[in-house]
Design goal:
single chain; 488 residues; mainly beta; five-stranded antiparallel beta sheet
């Protein structure tokens, strides 16, 4: 590339013509102006020579021409003609051109010619852009983006646009500034609903006046600020007592029966969608979906329980924690019987004195129990209902019980939930030292005989060896018999 040059013709008798040129360039107009001069050159027998028929063609245009009849006395260095020619460059600022010259030396006919091609210096066209120092690629940061413009001419103006996904916009229009401050629009985040960062393109169009002379581009990176995250718009906790109709009527959370139903709604941010919810506190679980409706398991412990909800969106961002609510779970256990005792009244052996004690879970005063006493002859299979009895006090039953019979007593305690506890005890006949069963073979020791067998109601002490006989008459000591049953 060059801004000057020389073209020589071929010679005749040591004589020739020479064109020299130099160029100045207009960046604004994208042109080069060629200044040229055509002179005589060479040496010969005489100091001068006759020449004519001159012609100069620059970039395809004839800039000087004389007919062959035109003749001049030409010395070495004599200027034939000079002038200038303005050449327009290509749109990218490049340009090549050619120069041709001719003359007739010593003759009227053209006998000396010359030509040559040249490439001019490229004229800078489109200005370039770059990110300035301290530039932030995070959307929404006020004046966080600085765009530097490197221009070829102070007369150039620039329009900067951007494209990010399907979004397009203009940063500035035909500005003369060399540094442009810009805030990346938050709306661009709608183009990246599933990511926290994306890329696009900045385009700078350079103008000379109203003419666009070129463009340059720059990679645009957009990051979502940390504040762009989903929001839990609502969250609540509700009781689920479908496991038991009685507890359902209490409206309380009860261990072993109640569940909690957690519901929540959330919204994404700048195009993102809600993908899952995480529950913490009383329950700990993660559920996928754009909304939350979760019923947990039955509670196994009592006390205060708080439920919190966090939503996650398609960008992988998590919301702030939202409290769904705090509940109280009340303890519950099945009723138990701690005491059941029966004895005959000291004043009337036909009267029974019963004492019973039991425990149950009150469930904040909602629960209750019913304690019902049953009895039967020890030799019978069917039970008779006596009725309810008071707790932890000696109760003399109104029913008469025969002195000559033994009885079984059963206590059943049932709470409002439907769970129960049961205990049984035995009471013998009245105390006698020795009794023979009338009309039978029964013997009662310490009691009245009720069956055709020996019944003992006294503590027994055996000073000698006690033998057990089998059906074949074989004897075995009681101690060995017990060992054979339970093992050594």
């Amino acid at each position: 590339m060059a801004l000057s040059g020389t073209v020589n013709s071929n010679g005749y008798d040591g004589r020739y013509i020479q064109l020299t040129w130099s160029a100045t360039q207009s960046v604004a107009n994208n042109t080069s102006t060629i200044k040229w001069s055509l002179k005589g050159a060479g040496t010969g027998q005489a100091g001068w020579y006759m020449a004519g028929g001159f012609k100069v063609v620059i970039a395809g245009d004839t800039v000087y021409s004389k007919s062959t009849d035109y003749r001049i006395k030409l010395y070495n260095g004599t200027e034939v003609a000079s002038g200038s020619k303005t050449i327009s460059h290509n749109s990218d600022g490049s340009k090549s051109f050619s120069i041709s010259i001719q003359a007739g030396i010593y003759t009227y006919a053209v006998n000396c010619t010359g030509s040559q091609s040249f490439t001019l210096n490229t004229i800078p066209r489109a200005s370039s852009i770059s990110w300035g120092s301290g530039t932030s690629s995070t959307a929404g940061v006020t004046d966080g983006t600085n765009i530097n413009i490197s221009r070829a001419s102070s007369s150039f103006t620039h329009t900067i646009t951007y494209q990010f996904g399907n979004a397009k916009g203009t940063v500035c229009t035909k500005t003369t500034a060399t540094n442009v401050k810009w805030t990346i629009p938050m709306s661009l985040l709608n183009q990246i609903p599933n990511a926290t960062s994306g890329t696009g393109t900045m385009t700078c169009t350079t103008y000379s006046g109203n003419t666009a002379i070129g463009t340059s581009t720059l990679k645009l990176t957009v990051n979502a600020p940390a504040s762009v995250k989903p929001t839990v718009t609502s969250a609540s906790v509700a009781i689920d007592n479908s496991a038991n109709s009685v507890i359902a009527g209490w409206g309380l959370y009860v261990v072993g029966y109640s569940k909690a139903k957690i519901t929540a709604a959330a919204s994404g941010s700048y195009g993102s969608s809600v993908s899952s919810f995480t529950i913490s506190g009383g329950y700990s679980t993660t559920q996928s979906g754009s909304s939350l409706s979760y019923t947990g398991g039955k509670f196994t412990s009592s006390g205060s329980k708080t439920f919190n909800v966090v939503a996650k969106d398609s960008r992988g961002r998590s919301s702030d924690t939202k409290a769904a609510g705090t509940i109280t779970v009340y303890a519950y256990s099945n009723p138990t019987i701690s005491t059941l005792s029966v004895h005959r009244s000291s004043s009337d052996a036909k009267k029974m004195v019963v004492k019973a004690n039991w425990n149950f879970a009150s469930v904040n005063g909602k629960n209750s129990v019913t304690a019902t006493l049953y009895y039967k002859l020890s030799t019978s299979s069917g039970w008779t209902t006596y009725g309810t009895i008071a707790k932890n006090t000696d109760v003399t039953l109104t029913t008469d019980f025969a002195e000559e019979h033994s009885y079984n007593f059963r206590l059943i305690v049932i709470d409002a939930v439907g769970n129960s506890a049961q205990d049984e005890t035995f009471i013998s006949t009245v105390d006698v030292l020795l009794d023979f069963k009338a009309g039978g073979k029964g013997l009662g020791i310490g009691k009245i005989a009720e069956t055709n067998s020996m019944e003992v109601a006294l503590d027994a002490k055996f000073m000698g060896t006690v033998y057990i006989y089998d059906d074949n008459g074989n004897a075995m000591t009681l101690a060995n018999y017990i060992k054979s049953i339970v093992g050594t």
